[in-house]
Amino acid sequence: MISLAQSLKLLKQVSLRLDLASLGRRFYRLSFWGVIAYAGLLLASRLSGFGAEWFNPWSLAAVPALCALVATVAHRRPTPVDAARAVDLYSGTKDLFLTVALLEKSAGDYQPLVAQAAETQAPRIQPARVVPFQFQKPLGELAAIAALAAAAVLFLPQFDPFGRVEASQQVAKKQQMLEDSKKATEARKAQLKTDVEEGEMSEEAKKAIEGLKTALNKMRPQEKTNNQRELAGQQKNLGEMWRRLNNEKLKELFSHSPQEQQFGSANKEKLEKWTRELQEGSSAALQKEIEEAIEDLQRLEQTTDPVKKAELEQKIRKKLKDLNQFAGDRVGSKPLSAALQRAMQQLEMSRMEGMDPKEAAQAVKESLELSKAELQEIAQSAKDLQKLEESLKIMQMAKQLNEQEKLDGEETEGMGDMGEYEEFYQELIAQLGLSGMEGEGEGEGEGEDGEGEGDGEGMGGRGMGRGRAAPEDDSTESDFRTEQSKSPVTAGKTLMTMKSKGLSQKGDDRAEYRKA
Fold it and tell me: For 373-402, what is the mean pLDDT?
């Protein structure tokens, strides 16, 4: 068997170097002309304004990356015959190694002689000399033109003779605003509570009211002092929760009655209904209004009639405007107003040239869904406030009964709803004739220098709000005297005269002269 270990090793090393050298030359040529073409297009773009958004450092960096990919895909790997020809050319062995490369396919008695000659020559030949790597100069040239192209990208001024650059920048700015508004919507959604049913109380309010029910069921008539202490603690807890809700979320909503709405007469009935329902802890009418806006938005996406599109856009815009005005003026909810304002802005973006109308419409839907969640939370807070007021009223009744040592938790132990407690306590108070007793109340007041809140003594029965009018007896004599100064105005007395200069009516002066 003929041994060709040294010869085959040499051919393999030379073949690898031929492969790398060929790939490097192809990459150099593609990159060189690619960067030159990029520079030419860049110059045309900077002068005309067309395609300005495509020319930036990232696109320049993509040129050599793309050239490397093309060079690799289009590359043809050298064969052992190519390596043998390179070795023979370098060493002047007159096709010795070419014969070795083809030795397996040939037959003859000369094979041992050829193998012996090749094995003798192979150790003397260095692959690096057969195929030397000369990358320094090409890489330097490539780096130089790439640096010039990068300088052009960074410092070559942009001209805009046709206004395309400005229009593109406006679209990019609006697109960024749309993305930011979508992120704001998602962030707010993550903060809101999920799976809140209409008319339900929050877990915090439920826990507080359950605590009051448990405390009432533990009351004993003979433990008046302990009962009073427990009721005071419950009153403090419920009162703080009530004040927090009334100040932070619902103060603006409950500061006006539905009849005080200052909107147009056409919307007055609808807006009064919104206010009344929301104060009662329901957002059904408002939710329906938003659902109608979403349905109109879906029809807007599907229609191609420009007249119908304009009508639907106007209809949606009016709904959002009414909702936003109501949210800002009467609900006072900044998160709700922000969600509705985002929806209005996104609706306007959907009409802009260069914007994706479907993407903008989807953003409007997301903002409207967020508005529904905001309304759900406001309605829940209103329901909490209503239930807390009822609980505080019941607790005041319990205080009256405790004063008379008639507060017995065993009688209320089987009751579930707070309404049953209220009905039972009212009957018991009526039987005992306690309705006219002096009571306490939670309240808020406004003074000349600010606002204040606290516990105050009323003149009527216990409960939330104002007491009755204080009893007065007009027949009781006192040292009060009505003191009034004498009026300086008497009949016929001149209080003021007025003189002025100017032209009088024709004939006035003559008449005055004759009269004198």
Answer: 89
DSSP per position, 37-51 = HHHHHHHHHHHH-TT
329 and 257 in one domain?
A: yes
Question: Are 116 and 184 found together in one domain?
Answer: no
Same domain, 14 and 80: yes
Among candidate residues 408, 434, 460, the one where a domain is terminated: 434
> How far is it, in rounded angstroms, from Cα 255 to Cα 375?
18
Dist. CA 474–CA 280, nearest whole Å: 42
List the one residue out of 437, 388, 400, 394 whose CA is nearest residue 415.
394
CB 198 within 8 A of CB 283: yes
Give the three-class secondary structure for 259. Answer: helix
pLDDT at 442 over 80: no
pLDDT for position 69: 95
Domain that holds residue 84: 5-162
Q: Do 122 and 246 reside in the same domain of the chain?
A: no
**With 70 as the cut, is the pLDDT of residue 52 above it?**
yes
CB 454 within 8 A of CB 463: no
494 inside domain: no
**What is the band of 119 on the pLDDT scale with cuts at 50, 70, 90?**
confident
Q: Mean pLDDT lowest for which of 131-145, 400-414, 497-511?
A: 497-511
Show Cβ contacts of residue 338 under 8 Å, excluding neighbours closer than 6 positions. Answer: 184, 188
The answer to whether residue 495 sits within a structural domain is no
- The C-alpha atoms of residue 80 and residue 118 are separated, in whole angstroms, by 15
Residue 156 pLDDT > 90, yes or no? yes
Rounded to an integer, what distance in angstroms lies between the CA atom of residue 355 and that of residue 178?
Answer: 10
CB 354 within 8 A of CB 171: yes
Contact of 247 with 452, CB cutoff 8 Å: no
- CA separation for the pair 218, 411 (Å, rounded): 10
- With residues binned 3-state (H G I as helix, E B as strand, rest as coil), the percentages for the chain, rounded to 5, are 65, 5, 30
Q: What is the pLDDT of residue 477?
A: 52
Contact (Cβ atoms closer than 8 angstroms) between residue 319 and residue 291: no
Range in 97-111, 124-138, 210-224 the model is least confident about: 97-111
Give residue-wise pLDDT tens across range 289-304. 999 999 999 999 898 8
C-beta separation of 370 from 187 below 8 A: no
Q: What are the residues whose beta carbons fall under 8 Å from the beta carbon of 153, sequence distance 6 or more?
A: 42, 55, 56, 57, 60
Tell me, yes or no, whether 118 and 175 share the same domain. no
Angle made by CA atoms 67, 71, 77, in degrees to the nearest 5 = 170
Within this chain, do residues 174 and 136 fall inside the same structural domain, yes or no?
no
User: How many structural domains does the chain have?
Assistant: 2
Collapsed DSSP state (helix, strand, coil) of residue 444: strand
111 and 167 belong to one structural domain = no
Instruction: Answer yes or no: are the C-beta atoms of 323 and 340 closer than 8 Å.
Output: yes
Contact status, residue 46 vs residue 156, Cβ threshold 8 Å: yes
